[in-house]
Design a protein that fits this description.
heterodimer; A: alpha+beta; FAD/NAD(P)-binding domain; D-Amino Acid Oxidase, Chain A, domain 2; Glutaredoxin; 3 domains; 8-stranded mixed sheet; 13 helices; globular; B: mainly alpha; 3 helices
Chain lengths: 528, 69
């Protein structure tokens, strides 16, 4: 049990007496992805029922590393401040090979962003903050201890078989979002296979409470003397909890490896005998880098680990899942409200499958670097590490995790190609990048100005005849005193960016005109 | 003699590492050693200039001998 956190016990609502219930949207799984998509939909005016088989938050730290993009999404739905207050900011990483530090890196935070590159925080805090938000957001019904046990697909959606402590019922839903993790009941019910790779190597993942003076840095060891030639990771979390990951030989006995005494011995060898610690959580992972072939099956959508799984190095699992939620919510809301055709929903997988593939590729490569599969590859890997002591090019090749960066929806059908030549700025499909902005003379952030619907940002006067449901952000020297908006977006008079409701860039031009806007808006809403 | 450059010339380090890993796939240890040796000769021929190849040889060897101390 964690020292600084008490797991809540949420109340299970009674099952409907009639044995039947219905909803427009059912979300299965109240983890970070399910809760995010529920809040995002509800804030867009769509009522949802969120079902979970448990009645508390996550055990263990699990996702821990939250990327800037995830923090921006969480800020948009309203839990940014809570994360900022609790999380541990880190920028520096150190890499060790055998006895020595071979080099260190600094993520060098760029000035002029509301959020840092990463913060570390236990998953139970993330879920706790999301539940607090969900409980106060109108339109969300949280049904704890309502376990989905069956699924029947029909023309108008699906019927979920649900078991609760006081009886079973059927829930008819027009749309189902499966956020029920790697062992997804919905996936199993549809008998959908994963495509990808499984790795033999295992990692022991632990949360350790200790009073230690290690800095808030990411330390990664290749073949340290304390751990029999395998890899190890140390990373700081809130409440004096440290995350320690230890690679375990592929042929080790899993039952034996998760025994507390065994784990304690390994950690003592790592930390030395003079640091007292308590083990809060132990988990043994074998890695899988794989995904479903499709993320949409009629009106059933898969998001997060139910759709794709990666190894943890690179922080691409949780961050990827939150971006799935961010991508799906506005599209589903528009289709349900009749503001967009059904094929807008096809763009969910058109955008998120390439993003998942990028995450799978990077996490597979990191895992291959950490766990060489042959003597020749181990020689090659060790040569990279040895040369990295001196050679800058070799440092670039050292791979202890390529950290999550926001996906760019490059080949998406929703994205309009540049109508004019940009030498710099942000490519269409990219997530908007933050910058300081003055609002009524007060310092604020650009991302906070982007609305729930489409938003245009223009340098210069607002053109006439902008549809009334489009928010306009006018930029000029008067509200961009740092010049960072001008620089980051390559703005000049007339330059216009069209932001989608998920803050991604749908289109941009140096010469605004009405036809460009009309066409870009239609394309971005799935009318193409 | 030329100095081995500090400048980074490899633009896609992860693609390079993956290509090298893939090159060893399904080879015996002896075949892998031969593959490495042939690769060295082929790369040396690509570089062409003996002085530069010597800089790389010197760098590789001195990094090994430094570890012996």
């Amino acid at each position: 049990m964690p020292k600084g956190y008490t797991h809540p016990k949420f109340i299970a609502p009674p099952a409907p007496k009639s044995g039947k219930d219905s909803t427009k949207v059912a979300i299965v799984g109240a983890g970070p992805v399910g809760l995010t998509v529920a809040i995002d939909l509800a804030q867009r005016g769509i009522s949802v029922i969120l079902l979970d088989d448990g009645d508390t938050t996550s055990h263990g730290s699990r996702l821990i590393c939250m990327s800037k993009r995830t923090l921006e999404i969480f800020d948009r739905i309203g839990i940014g401040k809570l994360l900022e207050e609790k999380g541990v900011i880190w920028n520096k990483g150190r890499l060790f090979f055998q006895d020595d530090e071979i080099y260190n890196f600094d993520l060098l935070p760029e000035p002029g962003h509301a959020w840092p590159a990463f913060i570390n925080i236990q998953q139970y805090y993330v879920e706790d903050f999301l539940v607090q938000k969900a409980e106060t957001t109108p339109g969300i019904e949280l049904r704890w201890k309502h376990a989905v046990v069956g699924l029947e697909v029909h023309d108008e959606g699906a019927s979920l078989g649900i078991e609760t402590p006081d009886g079973a019922y059927k829930l008819d839903a027009s749309y189902v979002i499966a956020c029920d993790g790697a062992h997804s009941t919905i996936r199993k019910a549809l008998n959908l296979p994963f495509v990808g790779r499984a790795f033999d190597d295992r990692f022991l993942i632990t949360d350790v409470f200790m009073k230690a003076n290690f800095p808030s840095e990411r330390w990664f060891w290749f073949e340290p003397p304390f751990h029999d030639g395998q890899s190890a990771l140390l990373h700081k979390q809130p409440d004096g909890v440290w995350r320690i990951d230890l690679q375990i030989a592929a042929n080790a006995d899993p039952e034996e490896e998760i025994k507390e005494d065994k784990v304690r011995g390994r950690i003592e060898r790592m930390l030395g005998s003079d640091i007292p610690f308590e083990i809060e959580w132990i988990s043994l992972y074998s890695f899988r880098c794989r995904r479903l072939e499709k993320f949409r099956h009629n009106n059933i959508f898969f998001a997060g680990d139910s759709a794709h799984q990666v190894s943890p190095f690179g922080a691409r699992g949780g961050n990827g899942g939150v971006q799935d939620a961010d991508n799906l919510a506005w599209k589903l809301a528009k289709v349900i409200k009749g503001e967009a055709p059904d094929n807008l929903l096809d763009s969910y997988e058109a955008e998120r499958i390439p993003a998942a593939d990028e995450n799978i590729k990077n996490s597979s490569r990191s895992t291959d670097f950490m766990t060489p599969k042959s003597a020749a590859v181990k020689d090659l890997r060790d040569a990279v590490l040895a040369l990295a002591r001196q050679e800058p090019f070799a440092r670039r090749m050292v791979n202890s995790g390529r950290l999550s960066v926001p996906a760019r929806y490059e080949s998406s059908p929703l994205i309009t190609c540049d109508a004019s030549t940009f030498n710099r700025g942000l490519l269409p499909g990219s997530a908007a990048v933050d910058a300081p902005i003055l609002i009524d003379g007060k310092e604020d952030w650009l991302l906070k100005q982007i609305g729930q619907n489409f938003t245009i940002m223009i340098w210069g006067p607002t053109p006439p005849n902008i549809p009334t449901d489009i928010l306009v952000i006018q930029i000029g020297p008067e509200n961009d005193p740092s010049g960072l908006i001008k620089e980051r977006y390559n703005m000049r008079v007339g330059t216009t960016y069209l932001f989608r409701p998920d803050q991604h860039i749908a289109a941009r031009t140096h010469q605004f005109n009405q036809e460009w806007l009309t066409a870009a808006l239609a394309r971005s809403a799935g009318r193409h | 003699m030329a100095q081995y450059p500090k400048e980074i010339r490899v633009s896609q380090p992860d693609d390079l590492f993956e290509a090298l890993v893939d090159a060893h796939e399904n080879l015996t240890d002896a075949e892998s050693r031969q593959m490495n040796s042939r690769l060295i000769l082929l790369l040396a021929n690509l570089v062409g200039d003996l002085d530069q190849v010597l800089a790389a040889i010197n760098k590789a060897r001195s990094s090994i001998t430094a570890e012996q101390k």
